[in-house]
């Protein structure tokens, strides 16, 4: 991805992890709150250990606009279930507000009234593995265009066999080939509004079976069903 292409994406890091420390992605939804996935935090780490890198494209080559913050508060959805990945959504409050600019911007969270028919092209981005087997995460931010796939199709017997929840979105390609992977968790699925032209944060990268397999596209937590929850927690 080019510098500033996805100005709302953040890297959530554990400084003790080898390499960049990257654990999960997240999305800036205000100058002090990051929306991410609850499953990123199932392994216990002290709250103060979490580091957040904002405004970065290459994790090892920060630019002057890159800002580092630390976690002040972590809120996992009260109904998150790590066996079914239901309600896989979390909020992280940063210790200090970030300075917004060309490389650091907030994403727009849609309320439930936005219709999927209004949406054009969708994209995912992250520092996750580019190969399911390698497990190595790239330092340079990756991006991919994906298509929303009907939830009923995605939940059918040849696909995910009923494992999806009504608050999930499916995105990718029926034939596979392009997908999110390990390390992309918590990051953004954004779709362009064909009328207004800007992007909406439609989903949070949650899970999948393998990466880029046919009929097993990426599964995302839809943001719209949690709009009120987000407002309540951050208000």
UniProtKB/TrEMBL annotation:
Q: Which CDD domains match?
A: Tryp_SPc
Q: Which Pfam families match?
A: Trypsin (PF00089)
Q: Look up keyword Disulfide bond and say if it applies.
A: yes
Instruction: Kindly report, in one word, the top-level EC class recorded for this enzyme.
Output: hydrolase
Instruction: Tell me the GO molecular function terms.
Output: serine-type endopeptidase activity
Domain spans labelled Peptidase S1: 1-235
Q: What is this protein called?
A: Acrosin
**Gene name in the database record:** Acr_9
